[in-house]
């Protein structure tokens, strides 16, 4: 079931915009987020409707898997309905944490 799933495009894809009453091909760029709004339909169940930039466009369902990466759903706890666990283990220090010696300034000749 694809309805409600979100995908981030890793490669651009052609979609069909039918808002004007006729089919117009549009290129959706890399990194665009698409949300599936219908199950596959049409001949051979190949086309799906997706929401992109507040408009519904049609595209091949296979392009979602071939050119996009599904964005995992957030758990309800992460959305504020439950506790959020924060990992406080930061691992080993990245540098020596001993205090630095005080700074001294030397003036050059003529100062």
Description:
- The protein is mainly beta.
- The protein has a domain at 6-71: SH3 Domains (SH3 type barrels, Roll), CATH 2.30.30.
- Helices cover 11% and strands 31% of the residues.
- The chain is built from two helices and seven strands, in the order ββββββαβα.
- The chain has helices at residues 61-67, 77-81; strands spanning 6-9, 13-17, 24-28, 33-36, 47-52, 55-60, 68-71.
- The strands form two sheets. A five-stranded antiparallel β-sheet has the order 6-5-4-1-7.
- A hairpin with a 2-residue loop joins β5 and β6 (55-60).
- The longest helix is centred in the middle third of the chain and has 7 residues, at 61-67.
- The protein is elongated and about 85 Å long.
- The model has no long low-confidence stretch (mean pLDDT 79).
Brief overview:
This protein is mainly beta and 111 residues long.
Q: Architecture of the domain at 6-71, according to CATH?
A: Roll
Helix % is 10-25%
Distance between the termini: 77 Å
- Give the CA-based shape: elongated
Instruction: Classify the fold: give the CATH topology of the domain at 6-71.
Output: SH3 type barrels
The helix/strand class is mainly beta
The largest sheet is: 5 strands, antiparallel
The counted number of beta strands is 7
Strand arrangement in the largest pleated sheet? 6-5-4-1-7
Q: Return the average pLDDT rounded to an integer.
A: 79
Computed over alpha carbons, the radius of gyration is 26 Å
- Outline the low-pLDDT stretches: none
The arrangement of helices and strands along the chain is: EEEEEEHEH
- Described by its quaternary structure, the protein is single chain
| % residues in beta strands | 25-35%
Note the total helix count.
2
CATH class wording of the domain at 6-71: Mainly Beta
CATH superfamily descriptor of the domain at 6-71:
SH3 Domains
